[in-house]
Amino acid sequence: MNTSLAQADFGARDSAIRCQTYSPVQMHPGVPRETFAAYWRDVHGPLCSRLPGLGFYVQHHFSRTIYANLWPLAPGVRRIDFPLDGAVEIGFPDADAMERFGKASPLLFGDEVNVFGWDAAYFLPNGSRTFVDKQADGIPNGPDRLHRLHVYMHAKTGVDMKAWVTGFAETLAADQAVLKLRLHLPEPYDNTNPQPPSPVDHEVRKDMLELAVMEIGFETALTARRFFESERFSATKTGQSAHIEAMAAHFVTGVYTFVRDSIPTTAGLRGSRVAEIIEAVGATNHLLGDVTRLFTRS
What we know:
This protein has 10 helices and 13 strands. The chain has 298 residues and is α+β, with helices and mostly antiparallel strands. It has a single domain, classed as Alpha-Beta Plaits (2-Layer Sandwich). It starts with 18 loop residues before the first strand and ends in a 6-residue tail after the last helix.
């Protein structure tokens, strides 16, 4: 077992996120990938972190090149062929906090033209649910220490899969191989009311309008493959075939936390790569109140 992980379950810490959005993103097609990742982490991220009302903010960066054998498709389920470069969770402790953030958000959304070519904000008025989280670190900032996927599931026409996918998540989370499982069940996306209100493309394709998104993490790729070959997972394939029209699995390369419990992290205050350097050097003086107050929002 990786020393960064523990057998204790830390999932309850996410209960403070009462309402949120989940937004998949594509990088601006004219921006080099390295520049996109750095700008999102070190420029756009700290800008967002300073807006009032924000209770939770984490970026998940995806790989476009790692996609083989990530998730075995059940019979009759087709793949959603739509590349993504990441997803962002923005959460709030209550509706009032979300409203304060919304009033200040034009400062943030005006910056999207510098980094994104497409994004879409899915609303979760009651937040998301973490079924299990065995990661002791609640504010990761760096390359992902898990073999982690974000699995997008689009329901068959006329099928309400919320109850089924919740049970599906419970079944998977009960396996010891699963170290993290968080389920997002957003409201259907409405192309007549594109979100977020930023000057980039927000048009969502038909097989992504009604999504369930599962974040699932394993210790290694080998652990994941063995899990997918297990009787527990194989027994779910009939249900997957009955409820899922199309799906996609995206491999997470890095997780960067900028705000947790309404408090900006070092990454949120200083930028993600600066925070990595501070941690690598062990520069504890940069964590002192007299220093952090120089960077905190009033």
